[in-house]
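Title: [Solved] Glutathione synthetase 3D structure

Original question kept below for reference.
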Amino acid sequence: MSQARLASCIPLPLEHKLLVTVIEKAKDWALMHGVGMRDKKHFTKDSIQIAPFVLLPSPFPRTEFDKAIELQPVLNELMHKVAHDDEFLEHTLQNALQVDEFTANLYDIWIKVRQEGITQPITLGMLRSDIMLESRCPHTVNQCAKHTPYCSWKQVEINSIASGFGHLGPISRDIQSYILRQLGHGDLIKNMPENHALSGLCSGITEAYDLFGVPTAVVLFVVEEVSYNICDQRFHEFEISEKRPDIQIYRKTLNEIYEETTLNDKKQLIFDGRPVAVVYYRSGYEPAQYPSTREWDARLRVERSTAIKCPSIHYQLAGTKKVQQTLAAPGVLEKFMGSSEATKKVRDIFTGLYSLDFDESGERAVDMALAEAERFVLKPQREGGGNNLYGAEVREALLRMRHSRERAAYILMERILPPLVSGYVVRPGAPVPPPVSDLVSELGIFGVIIGTKDKIHCNRQVGHMLRTKLADANEGGVAAGLGALDSPYMLDL
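Solution (posted by the thread starter after getting help):
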C-alpha cells in the first residue's frame, strides 16, 4: 500500500527560471526579517545564515487544526495537575531514576526543595504539544477509504521547555505569504491561519513578572554556552522590551548564574543587586547532562529561590517521556480529569506508548519491538529530537539492553505514518533550485498556563509552529539542520 498524500497548495513543479528568482528573493527576505541562525560550522557572532524553510505552506486539514487549538488548554491543565501530584511523579519515575542520571539529578533537586519548603508556589508553564496526522486507520487492516488521505492526528509529545519557534513560527507564515504573492497566488494567503505565538508566549513571561509584584525585579533567560538559534531567542527579548520597557532582561548561562547570583535571607535570587522575578529556560538548553557541578548547583539555587521558574523542576519532571507513557495507560487520565468528554478527546490523541520496565508488560513490549522494529521509536526521557532511535537501531538497542536496567530509561512509541506532500526545501549553501521532494510535517501548538497547585491564574492557547522534513528523515529539528520552517495551509476535506 502506497503512503497517503495531500496535494500542494499550488501545482508543482514550478518553472525553472521563476523558481530560481523567487528563491533568491525569499533568501534575502529571510535574512532581512530574522529567518536566520548562526552557522554551526563557521560560528561567529557577527553573521547569520538563513534558517531552512519550505518554499510553500504545507496542507493541513482545517478540522484537525481547530481540534488541536481547542484541546491545548485542556492539555495545559492536565500537565499542571501532573506536575503538582508529588505521589504520581514519585511512583512513575522510580524505575527511570535508577538508570537515567539527568532525570535523577532533577529529581534530587525536587526532593531537596520540597523538604526545605517551596518558596514560590506560582509556576509558569509554556508548553508545546507536537502532533502529526496519522494516515493509518486503527479500525481496519488497510487504510480506511472513508478517511483518505488521513485518519486522525496523534500526539508525538508534549514539551515543557517549549518556547522555541515563538518567533520563527509566525515569521514562517510571513515569508511564505511573501512567496505566494511573488508567484501570483496572494489570494491563497487567507487559508494560512494567523499566528501570534511570539506575543502570546511573551505575555506569559510578563504576566508572571507582574504576579511576582516587585517593580525593580529583573528577568533571566537561561541560555546555552553558545547560541545558534539566536534570531528566535532575541525576538522574545525584543517583543518584551517593546511592550514592557520597564522589564529588564538578561541572558545568562547556568555557569554565569552560579557566579553572578546569590540568595538573600528572604530566599530572593539576587542579580546585580536586584531580585529576579522570572527565570526562563530557553528552548534547546537541555544537554544530556549539565557537565559541571556548578551548573547543577546553579539550578538548585534557582529552585530554592522565590523566582517564578519556567519550567519549574516539577514541570520538567512532568515532561519526561515516562510520565507521558504512563498517562496513556488505562485509568490514569481519569485520575486527573475524571470521566469527561475532554478525557476521551485526550485519550484519542495518544498513539501506542509502552513501558520497558522489568515486568510482564515491559517484556511484551520488548518482544513486540524486536519482532517489528520498523513500527516503533525508542525514546529516552529528555525533550527534543536527536536522542531517539528508529528501525534497526531499535532492535540493536533492545537486544543490547534486554537484560539491563538501562532499558527502563526509555519508552517505546508506535511510529506515526503521516501523509506525504510534495514541496521545495530551501537550505543555506544548498544548490538552487532544490528538487521537488516528498515531505512530512509536525504541528506544534503552544500553550501558556500560570498558577499554583490550587489556583490557575491563566490558561490559554497562544499560537503554533510547523516543522517539515524529508519523508525519509527520522528527526526533524530545524536547529539541528534536519527539518525546515513551515506553516499550515488549511484544507477543507
